[in-house]
Amino acid sequence: VMPEIDGKVEFKNVSFSYEEDGEIILKDMNFEVQPGETIAFVGATGAGKSTIINLMTRFYDIDKGDILIDDIDIQGVKIASLRKQIGVMMQDTFIFSGSIADNIRYGNLEATREDIEEAAKMVYADSFIREMENGYDTEVNERGSRLSVGQRQLISFARTILSDPKILILDEATSSIDTQTEILIQKATQAVLKGRTSFVIAHRLSTIRNADRIMVLEAGEIIETGSHEEL
Ligand code: ATP
Ligand code: MG
Hints:
The chain has 8 helices and 12 strands. The chain has helices at 49-56, 79-85, 100-105, 113-122, 126-131, 149-163, 179-193, 205-210, and strands at 9-16, 26-33, 38-43, 64-69, 72-73, 86-89, 98-99, 139-140, 167-171, 197-201, 213-218, 221-226. The radius of gyration is 18 Å and the shape is globular. Residues 9-231 form the ABC transporter domain.
């Protein structure tokens, strides 16, 4: 079991291919990320952004090198306890059949209604939820058909705030949303990244601008790194 972590993440000479003797997808990758830092990954399709995430969460094991969290080699950590430390927000938000409150609570069974509402407020979801017929008790189905794409994202942000992972992976959605919701999502994104070590596969210019560091990937290598002003 991993103890309470600070959230430092290191890649040391990491090389990886999906198939044995196959194409090398990540080539001797090295970086160190400090607790609380926000990293934006940018790069063309196939550059290796998702692969980095797959390795950090141990959906695949690396061939060469080490990935360390707080100086602990993740190879020696139980996958379940590793994933407890890492919050992952993928592009399509997972909504299940139940109330809005249940959807925010998700695995955090000990969370009170107050905690849930607090989390929703932090990501600017509280006001649209209150406007629904039964507020936090409004029932939604798996397809989340009563929620807009942007609202679904805000729910998933609230869920993440509640579970409070030290390390966060965010694969930013590309779907187009109206300007009003876009502004909310931008603010909510900053709220959810705050205080965590965050890796964002970034599609929003605002996220890239706000990142502490941008890593530009090309064919499995980091070809540039720096802040938005530096690059
Ligand atoms: P995108 O912007 O399209 O999501 P990406 O930067 O996330 O691209 P990856 O998904 O990391 O790129 O892919 C990197 C390389 O690895 C690509 O050449 C891709 O074809 C290959 N690849 C990805 N997943 C697999 C897999 N499961 N098996 C074999 N090859 C894979
Ligand atoms: Mg990808």
